[in-house]
Design brief:
Pfam families: Fer4_7 (PF12838). Keywords: 4Fe-4S, Iron, Iron-sulfur, Metal-binding. InterPro entries: 4Fe4S_Fe-S-bd, 4Fe4S_Fe_S_CS, NADH_quinone_OxRdtase_chainI. The strands form 3 sheets. Strands 2-3-5 form a 3-stranded antiparallel sheet, with no helix packed on it. Strands 1-4 form a two-stranded antiparallel sheet. A two-stranded antiparallel sheet has the order 6-7. It is elongated. The protein folds into 2 domains: 89 residues, Alpha-Beta Plaits, CATH 3.30.70.3270; 50 residues, no CATH class. The chain is built from 6 helices and 7 strands, in the order H-E-H-E-E-H-E-E-E-E-H-H-H. Bound molecules: iron/sulfur cluster (2 copies).
Length: 177
């Protein structure tokens, strides 16, 4: 094919590249972009903070001790995906939004934040991070009994109830022998 024919064919076909940044562009499903955090599904286990390769995540107690603040700095994030991989409740996930370019002066505005409000344990009244259904359904599946029984009970009370019910069961079994 002559060079002239190639030029004419390409002119007829039009541009072969994306119009970005003047128009939309394609992003593959697996692209690791900006991070979305859902405080309603978070159990404050701090695993994401622990595994974060870039040290981009901080979970700190609010000054008035009413809950926990979650902060993630996108300018420090390496988009490695470890936080999403290790999060037990899928409260943190990477999106395909790659628009992270910003001026140096704006770096503290490129954050993802969230707040987990403490609730009172329904047994002892201690302030606690709510036990979210994402965690309970992961532990107990569709079992409504235990899911309801452990709702909004602090760690200590859950442990105590589990131990007591275990001891009672064992005692009943022993007494039948
Ligand atoms: S993607 Fe990696 S670097 Fe970014 S917040 Fe998650 S663990 Fe940290
Ligand atoms: S986002 Fe996930 S890994 Fe991070 S503290 Fe919450 S539950 Fe744990």
């Amino acid at each position: 094919m002559s060079f002239l024919k190639i030029i004419l064919r390409n002119l007829r076909k039009g541009p072969a590249t994306d119009p970005y940044p003047f128009g939309d562009t394609f992003t593959p499903d697996g692209l690791r972009g900006k991070i979305k955090y859902n405080p309603q599904a978070c159990v404050a286990c701090r695993m994401c903070e622990h595994v974060c390769a870039g040290g981009a995540i901080r979970i700190t107690e609010a000054e008035d001790k009413s809950g926990l603040n979650f902060t993630l700095w996108h300018n420090t994030c390496a988009f490695c995906g470890l936080c999403q991989h290790y999060c037990p409740t899928k409260a943190i996930r990477l999106t395909t939004d790659f628009h992270t370019a910003h001026r140096q002066a704006d770096k503290y505005n490129y954050v993802e934040t969230g707040f987990i409000k403490y609730v009172a344990c329904r047994r002892c009244g201690q302030p606690m991070v709510p036990v979210v259904k994402e965690l309970l359904s992961r532990v107990y599946g569709d079992l409504e009994g235990p899911t309801k029984a452990f709702e909004n009970l602090c760690e200590g009370c859950r442990r105590q109830i589990s131990t007591e019910s275990g001891v009672n069961k064992r005692w009943t079994e022993e007494s039948k022998r």
